[in-house]
Amino acid sequence: MKNIDSRTHVRGESVYLDDIPTIRGTLFGAAFGSPVAHGLIKNLDLKAAEAMPGVVRILTYKDVTGENQIGGIIPDEPLLAEHHVDYCGMPVAFVVAETEDIARAAVKRITIDIEPLPVITDPREAQAAGQLIVPARTFRLGNTLTTWAECTYVIEGTTDTNGQEHLYIETQGAYAIPQENSGIKLYSSTQGPTAVQRAVARSSGLPMHEIDVDVTRLGGGFGGKEDQANMWAALCALAAHILNKPVKYSLHRMEDMAMTGKRHPYSSDFKLGLDKDLKMVAYEVTFYQNAGAAADLSPAVMERTLFHSTNTYFIPNVTATAYSCRTHLPPNTAFRGFGGPQGMFVIEAAIAKAAEELGINASVIQAKNLQQTGDEFPFGQKAQSEANACWSKANELYEIDEIRNKVDSFNTVNLLYKKGIALMPICFGISFTNTRMNQARALVHVYTDGSVGVSTGAVEMGQGVNTKMLQVAAHVFSIQPKRVKVLSTSTYRIANTSPSAASATADLNGKAVEIACTAIMNRLKAVAADELNVDVNTVSLQDEWVYVNGAQTDWDWNRLLIAAYANRVSLSEHGHYATPDIHYDKTLEKGHPFAYHVYGTAIVEVTVDCLRGTYETDAVKVVHDFGTSMNPLIDRGQIEGGIVQGIGWMTMEEVIFDKAGRLRSNALSTYKVPDIYSVPKEIAIEPLQTEAENLAIFRSKAVGEPPLMYGIGAYFALRNAVLAFNPSAKIPFDAPMTPEKVLLALYNINPAQHSMPHAHTQTANDLAVNP
Amino acid sequence: MPPGTPVLDFVRYNQYLTGTKIGCREGDCGACTVLVGDLSTGELRYRTATSCLMPLGNAQGKHIVTIEGINMVELNPIQQAMADESATQCGFCTPGFVVSMAGFCLSKKAPTSQNAIAAVDGNICRCTGYKSIERAATRVAHLLEKRKTEEPVKFAANQAILPAYFTTIQERLQALSSSLNGELTNASPHAQRVGGGTDVYVQKHDEIKDASIRFLFDNTDLKGIRQDGNDCVIGPATTVTDLIESPLIQQYFPDFKHYTTLVSSTPIRNMATIGGNFINASPIGDFTIFFLALDATLTFSDGNLSRELPLRNLYQGYKMLDKRPEEYLEQIRFSLPAQNTQFNFEKVSKRTHLDIASVNSAINITVEDDLITHVRISAGGVAAIPKQLTKTAEFLTGKLLSEELIQKAISIAQTEIAPISDARGTEAYKRLLLGQLIKAHFIKLFPALEVEQLLKT
To answer: Which residues form the Aldehyde oxidase/xanthine dehydrogenase a/b hammerhead domain (chain A) (predicted)?
Structure first.
């Protein structure tokens, strides 16, 4: 089934936040962000801005009617800065004006006097200074300390992965409309309506039941609107509450890029021990997560990094430690994979380094260490593994030996171009790692004309979750899909929701829809049994007809509904689902946090232009563990999109902050995401169809995040291509592998040593991540 | 509304046509793509444009088509292809893709899937990974296979690819243009000059929209590409697309189309003018680098007096021009390459397409019996101004072409540049890259050279 929004999407008729017709009298907001990354506010001068015609009000922290706090996990993030600023772009004041242009012009008239304080942009520096968001955590399996002596090979190294800008094409925004008796109707481009509702309640001082957060769809989220939609919603709601006027703020791209957090950059140290048979027997890893200036979701992201530190491999002795380091960058946040990719990059780098030192293919080590069912993860869960099945099928189906031969012969005859390949197996845990969040509710109304309205906590952002919700309802009722409408996500209809995140949205909300529909269905069957005077167990509904003992009756869906209504039987249900069997004990760092894991293997092939340092991805060939896909069209789109986003992170997407904490890659002209020409020429996707029971909706495993991690293979394929040209290349494990890094590696240039003394080296010194 | 208002704002907030989306306001995402139809060539011609960079003043007398303008009762076949291939996920970028493909259907480009995909080279999608969009584009190309010689607008309307009203536009535009003459003239000497808008509107629309503007884009005196003896004369309001489509340019620069695939995107090439690229004075302007190697000569006029100035002398420092405020660019002239003269353009950026160069370079070189008799090399991204590498050229001139000579020329080039580290690369990278691009020029133009020798650093 195609995405139910396809028709309105291709006609430009789908409504996003900025498309909602504005109500008469609507005012427009714009945030004034700190120009300095760290400092004490000495003076904030609003006079010139306030004097501008059309400026209605400029709010500062003094105007916050509730608590000046929007931190989700930890209350460490003010809505508006009070006495100090902690990152460039941190909102200090909120201008409300009659037009958008006036609001933005007024922002430019605000001046601020800040006494600068030292700026930290590097997570290791922050950790050394004791600047941690939460205490460090360590996952342990076996004993690494006593194992090193038994290792034949011990490999050590350091890795860095940079951040990633979400670049949802629809920027952040909110539109708050005051209702009678202090209520607020709030349109927000958010993945977490309840998170917005909580942040607004806290900062405005209103109870949650006064705040209706309503979301129709997002123009992309990718994690960036999980927590970070709160700020703009809370600012608009506060202004609307104070002024009793509708207030809207749709961020400009540069505001969005400068003021919101991104994927967490990580710096990590690893030590990997292998025995003589290349079995990985010990692994120590330390992660330094660059959390930015406030907690946001960083502790949860850090946790998921630890949960994925061994990727799809079984290693009997593991010590994995993570620090969430407070720096003066915008608070980093959720991004597809949520720390998992950063953890997986390190183990893959360790394997690659071992392979390079031993002069073998990394795949030899990968293949020998794939997890078997029953193997224990470092956090205690026992694997239900499809790792070997995916790996073997990918190797056989895509004829890996043939691919290798072709690459080798290409490299032998070509001087200016070299090919490289890498295999990237993945294993990704599905469930919120915070067990309590694994619950969802759905409200289903069946109307007497046979139509069905479904509300859930799921937010549609392109992942097709509404289509899947519709499929669940249509399937359980056995009615035509067109009878079902999935309604907007509203905190008035569904309360206390978890954000649409962790790939688990379709599972959680789909199960809730299934529960609600099944309850109604059971009542309808009872009505049918009563009316037809048969045992309820003999009744079934199929394609909108009532069957008794498999024989069709003359009762159809509409007739049954009217009878049910006449009998005063409820045609509505509120379904509640909580994932069973999951638990986690943080004091022991052991438990069973995931409902299941998703597995897969990708073969990534690239070609490097060794004259220019540019490259192309030739192919990504995947065997992916779908369980049994309930919507192959949508799931294929998630895989293709995830792969390309992962390749973007590993190749061209380079977030650049200077040492003063200012974002230099602050627009689409300086931050490049894949375009249609930079995607793999071929993406092949073969399902690993499995029949085993799992906790996914209709056994259709979650598909949102896992494919992003196939993109990690592009980094290692590029590395192999560079080594084919220059076997002596010393390539730091430093992603993304931009054309710059490729060219420097091809020709053994170390930028730090090679830079000539020059008037402009000052600029080079100012670059924080690009020495 | 002031004529400096971006078409995007007019469409969304004045006409309430919200299918055209705002993604970046700098022409880099394509979510705001519209079709622009005009009669400037005598027949009705549609090209795509990013409406965020297009001032209303440049829409005068034209047919602006938004996504709403190509909707019919049922999905049109372009929309159907996008829906059938699941080429839309969050949907925010989708109208831009559909409009770009409609632009392809209205163009005379051959109906190949390669061309259909090229039509969306300015559209960014963050969800799909583009493979489904490629599949949809291929289907769109199939729609046009039967077109043969039929006029694209008529074919699209007749085949119900686009609404029937398109067949009435030519007549309506003719009526409109005759009633509009002269409305937009601006005689003020202080008026800001705007060509295609692709630079001046980037991130500055709110500042410029209320300015007093003289619109140059449709000034027929500033357009045209013609041969004058051994010279080529170009009007500064000529767009990149005009150059690509020019038979004269195609004849003398057979690889021109290939070079331009490295330069911005279809809608930007439709809007961006060559004169604008020069006057914008970016140290990395692709066409500045291109025409520096050709040693183009500019003619400036202040309305009364004209003067000539070599392009290489225009740049006095970062964004500083040898040009008085009242002067405007009237003409661009350069010698067409002679038979034994060869030309090449190279560009490397973080993303190969739709990106600003880290370093770009062009070469125009004449070699007779291995003797370099004449050469000009230009390089962008390596100094505060777009550079002609005069010392390097001087060194090469009169010498026998060899691998060693090229290596030496590269070390001389290093002495005339002063790259800085920025978001497009570090100084060390840009220095290395310029050397590589100089090597690339020679490897491409002189296949007899020993590549292995040249690759050594």
So the answer is: 11-118
The string of pLDDT tens digits covering residues A417-443 is 999 999 999 999 999 999 999 999 999
Shared-domain flag, residues A343 and A307: yes
Average pLDDT (A675-693) is 94
B29 and B151 in a single domain? The answer is yes
Give B75's contacts (C-beta < 8 A, 6+ positions apart): A7, A10, A11, B83
Task: Give the pLDDT band (50/70/90) at residue A712.
Answer: very high
What would the mean pLDDT of B111-140 be, rounded to a whole number? 98
Q: Where is the domain boundary, B165, B180, B195?
A: B180
In a shared domain, residues A378 and A491 = no
**B174 and B228 belong to one structural domain:** no
Query: What is the H or E stretch that residue B266 is in?
Result: helix B266-271
What are the tokens at A181? 């008796």
Three-class secondary structure assignment of A520-561: HHHHHHHHHHHHHCCCHHHEEEECCEEEECCEEEEEEHHHHH
Residue among A11, A616, A738 with most chain B CBs within 10 A, to mutate: A11
Q: What is the CATH number of the domain that holds A296?
A: 3.30.365.10
Tell which of A545, A578, A611 closes a domain.
A578
pLDDT for B167 beyond 90: yes
Q: Are B445 and A760 in contact (CB under 8 A)?
A: no
Same domain assignment for residues B313 and B224: yes
Give A 11-70 residues with CB within 8 A of chain B. Answer: 11-16, 18-19, 21
Whether A444 and A425 map to the same domain: the answer is no
Same domain? For A231 and A93 the reply is yes
pLDDT tier, A751 (very low <50, low <70, confident <90, very high otherwise): low
Written as one string, the DSSP assignment of B97-112 is: HHHHHHHHHHS-S---
A705 part of the active site = yes
Do A523 and A605 belong to one domain?
Answer: no
Tens-digit pLDDT profile for residues B58-101: 999 999 999 999 999 999 999 999 999 999 999 999 999 999 99
A173 near B CB under 8 A: no
Question: Do residues B225 and B299 share a domain?
Answer: yes
- Which residue in this structure is represented by tokens 């099928």? A393
DSSP per-residue string spanning A203-251 = HH---GGGEEEEE---S--TTTTTSTTHHHHHHHHHHHHHHTS-EEEE-
Assigned domain for A374 exists: yes
Question: Left if phi > 0, otherwise alpha if psi is -120 to 50, otherwise beta: which for B95?
Answer: alpha
**Mean pLDDT over residues A589-606, rounded?**
98
Query: Which B residues, 177 through 206, put their C-beta within 8 Å of a C-beta on chain A?
Result: 202-203, 206
Over 80: is that where the pLDDT of B457 sits? no
ipTM, two decimals:
0.97
A429 CA to centre of own chain: 13
* Local confidence band at A458 (pLDDT 50, 70, 90 cut-offs): very high
Neighbours of B13 (CB within 10 A): 16
From chain A, pick out residues whose CB is under 8 angstroms from the CB of B123.
Answer: 676
Do the Cβ atoms of B353 and A678 come within 8 Å? yes
Pairing of strands B45-50, B33-38: antiparallel
Query: For the whole prediction, is pTM greater than 0.90?
Result: yes
How many domains in chain B? 2
A428 and A453 inside one domain: no
> Which residues span the domain enclosing B446?
220-455
Say if residue A767's pLDDT is above 50.
Answer: no
Q: Domain for residue A427, yes or no? A: yes
- Count of other CB atoms within 10 angstroms of residue B206: 16
Say what the alpha-carbon torsion angle B238, B241, B242, B246 is, to the nearest 10 degrees: 140
Domain boundary residue, one of A259, A288, A305: A259
Number of structural domains chain A divides into: 3
Q: Do A13 and B16 touch (CB under 8 A)?
A: no
The encoded tokens of residue A560 equal: 């049954």
- B286 with B147, same domain: the answer is no
Q: Do A170 and B90 touch (CB under 8 A)?
A: yes
